[in-house]
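Predict the assembly for these three chains.
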Amino acid sequence: MAAVVAAAFLWPEPAKGFLGESSRIVFFHVPCAWTSSLAFVVAAAYSLAYLIRRNPWHDEVAHSAVRIGLLFGVLTLITGSLFASIMWGTWWNWDPRESSYLLLVFLYAAYLFLRAAIDDPERRARIAAAYALFGAVIMPFLVFVAPRVTASLHPQTVINPQGKILMDTPTRVVFFDALAAFSGLFLWMLSLDARAARAERRAKG
Amino acid sequence: MPSATTLTAENLSKSFSGPPLFRGLSMSVRGGLVAVAGRNGSGKTTLLRILAGLARPTSGRVVLERAGRALPDPERRLAVGWSSPDLELYGELSGEENLRFFRRAAGRPEPLEESRRRLREVGLAEEAIGRRVEELSTGMRQRLRLAFATLFDPDVLLLDEPANGLDVEGRAVLATIVERARRRGAVVIASNDERDLAGADERVELDVSRKP
Amino acid sequence: MSEEKADSRTTAHGSRLTAHGSALSSVLAVAAKDATAELRRRTALVAVLFFAVTALALVSFAIGPFGLPADDRPPVQAALLWIILFFAAATGLPRAFAHEEETGTALALRKTLPAARVLAGKALFNFGLFLAIAAVTVPGFGVLLEASFGSPAGLAATVLAGGYGLAVVSTFLSALSARAGQRHVLFVLIAFPLLSPLLLTAISATVEALRGGFPGTALRVLIAYDGAATCAAYLLAAVAWEE
């Protein structure tokens, strides 16, 4: 992870068409966005597993995934906002892709509020799982449809319509390493957090 | 003509946050009258709810079978009747409207005379037509609960504190219902009052199961 | 006992038909019961319509004096319309489940019916409630805010498609939050992220309709959302409302 961070600043040359060093943000912003989306998928999958097996561990993992997803989602918004302030001079643009990420962060927060409002552990786990899965069905509308329906300021995504990857080799290496590093970080944090939650539950008896 | 329906509880345990209410409880309800006894807070209401399918046990399961085969969902709900002091019916509707609604909602509408017959059997005919449930007295509401419990002529009848608030006539109505249900299939009565449990064929003591 | 004999006599095909027929009549029975009870009690209806009228009045007083140029009005009107509809719905629609829990009638319902049918019946009732709100609010916009309804068909279609999604999602979420603490605030918090795609699409469709165009693309998105929400609510109904 440390190697990635160092490499992000030293190795590739800044991409053309972006102001100064700001294009380096892609090494942080996109992996954060990727990680928080990954968190969502993990949360939804474990919520489904909980509903099938009713194993409290699955619920703990789902809960941790949402918490960490919230963290990375907020980081995505912050890094995106920094980039926007450099490129266009404003912190927020009401760009559809920005807004849909903000809504995703609200969704995570809502999940956590819902959990906080229910005392009985079994019911809390079950209701939260139902909410997560319902959210998973609605999520495509949030993330994909709205930005497509209206025009976007957002820079071309890496996975573009032509299907080719438009980065030079050093950038590509660092970028994909960053993705991998962030994913690893996420999984590690997830494992720690969920296990801590399980230990707490067992201690309470 | 007792029915071939059996309700079996296998190794039930239930705990809310804390020590279990009961553990390793197994019982088989095949016919006749089963008494469930125990002090306040011993878990009688919870046990009956679990048997009725209204609560999940922490572990163990409840099986409802007819002639050896598990009943599929729509019949399963209606084959077990349940009444409890927690049961409330719709205050804005009359007793008759309540019963007719539940029959229609379950996909088993019945003619008006049938609904009225049920109400007469619990001694409610005049009051229940036209008066909203919220205007009925405690005793009348309890009789309506009994009408609800027997609404689908269930093979297994679960009654939690069925005599609550009943006057002498009400108790007579209850006794008739219990006798009829006993001959038809099985009745489970949970109560603090030994009078309600008199003449039971089987008895389940809840405080005893709690001991380790 | 005679009913049991009748059941065993039906053929497999016949009983499947009966099952579908009885599902629909169950759902209608629940919706009808809610409507009857509501018309006798009138608390939700009054609260919700009063809210809509108050919000409408407030908005007219606030925006009226500004005299926006005609072309800028539709986005503002569309956004305000759906904000009022959302909050009015948030005030009234969750009562369908909350009332059952508060009065203790939820047990009887849960005992007799599978969750999916209860949810469907209440969603139907809530859709009706929404239409009542819209019947007051939309004309209100025409009168008080001088909104010109460029494409009435487009507007009607948007209100129907958007309202259906709003009703289904609100009903599902109110089943989830029916026994949680801080119910009123909680509902708005959990509803907003899920309803935002619907609201944003409905607003943009309304803008198009107010300007005279028929919002075909947006309507397709709304219908897709409605379909997805309906399937998800149906599949998760039992989880949301068991025990």
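Confidence is low (pLDDT under 50) at residues 10-19, 156-165 of chain A. Residues 42 and 175 of chain A are 22 Å apart (CA to CA).
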